[in-house]
């Protein structure tokens, strides 16, 4: 029997019992041993039963057992049961004295009350002293009552037994103290584990509640792609992906489609991509078929073991069907409105062309104004074309003076700058030739300068810089206007995005300028960056790589 098994048995059959039952169980071994002694005496030493002292001892044992059975120990002070082992010493003394001539081993019955006192866990030092003294008296008192002379030799002869009991008592006390200490430690550990289990269950319930509260489907998979955790939202999304007739389909069987409504290849499915170690954001797909189909945006993050191997992944599925429908409706609206712009724009451009055909009869200043009007009408026409077309933007490069483009942009923006109290400053070389699409780069410059002026409603300075760095051309538009915070900068190039201050101040705009500018720059193989601080201003920089055909002289 292992130690833990013995501890479990003791706990179940002794420690967890009432005090009355524990007193009876502790007294019972002595009573049974006395009964066995009586049986042996009746069988082999009948004269012992005739001894009145032995008989008195037996009656004492019987009476003590009756006391153990009758007294409600649970209602008395805790230590009151210790009277029983002291009474046992008296009963054992009578039993021993009455049977010494026939059964010498009866004196060992004193082990039972010694063990009881020593193992009680109460007043351990007193228990050792009491056990030793009681054993000593159990031996010597009968000798003295029998008329024996208590000489030092006689005392020494019988003293070894009490001292053996003292050693036994000390051993039991030490073992009991150790066991009590271990038991208390186990109880404390058990209480700690129960508290930890309660906290763990509470946290598990909290996690489940949080996961079921969010409107995003969450699934946790192991390294083999098996589901480990799924919230209620994801269960609903997963149900849409189940093909008819398959209760528990594998991912390759799920109804998952690309944005073009084409079934996704197995390795292109979000969970499969995640367990292969790929992390991604806003992976758009369709789940389900027919009227139940939903547009989903999937995001995944992988988990790794210490050795770098895959430990699984967490995949989030967000239903964006309404958002996709809203964007489609917005695109339709913009396309319809833009289409309506075509007729008046065509008329405006036609009459501007007719007026310019008579330039000889017009003042030079009017001809200049007509040229600016035509250029901006053409810009608006290109903007309408960009809104209408779903095809990729096409650029046609030619050797162009970027400095001249900047001059035209600044001239066109001068009236708006004057109305806003904005000073336009240019830091551009006299000539900056590069292979670019003049119309598209002019459009990009117009967008940047126009935005810089619009977002400086309280006045300020807009500085346009351009220079070359080897074969690269760099253009920079900086203003001292309202600026943007980090969140707004992150969305600055998003379609139809308008910063909160622009909306609050009713600054006109569609939120397309920066997106179109970024597309133009990207078509030239370049990049555009933004640096901004609320209340300080904004700087946008375009980098057009490899467009300077020959080195520019210093």
List keywords for this structure.
554 residues, alpha+beta, six-stranded antiparallel beta sheet, five-stranded mixed beta sheet, 13 strands, 56% helix, rod-shaped
Element layout with pairings:
Layout: H1 3-15, H2 19-44, H3 46-50, H4 52-70, H5 83-99, H6 111-119, H7 124-145, H8 152-213, E1 217-221, E2 227-230, H9 232-241, E3 256-257, H10 270-275, E4 280-287, E5 294-304, E6 310-319, H11 321-357, H12 364-388, E7 398-401, H13 402-420, E8 422-427, E9 433-436, H14 438-454, E10 460-469, E11 472-479, H15 486-490, H16 500-504, H17 513-523, E12 527-533, E13 537-544
Helix pairs in contact: 2-4, 4-5, 5-6, 5-7, 6-7, 6-8, 7-8, 11-12, 13-14, 14-17
Short summary:
With 554 residues, the chain is an alpha+beta fold.
Helical run tally: 17
| Biggest β-sheet: strands ordered side by side in the sheet | 2-1-6-5-4-3
State which percent range the strand residues make up. Answer: 15-25%
Which overall shape is indicated by the principal axes computed on the Cα atoms?
A: rod-shaped
Largest sheet: 6 strands, antiparallel
For the termini, the CA-CA separation is 97 Å
**How would you classify the helix and strand content by structural class?**
alpha+beta
Low-pLDDT stretches are none
The helix/strand order is: HHHHHHHHEEHEHEEEHHEHEEHEEHHHEE
- Could you report the average pLDDT, rounded to the nearest whole number? 83
Q: Tally the beta strands.
A: 13
Task: Estimate the helix proportion, in percent.
Answer: 55-70%
Instruction: Tell me the Rg in angstroms.
Output: 50 Å
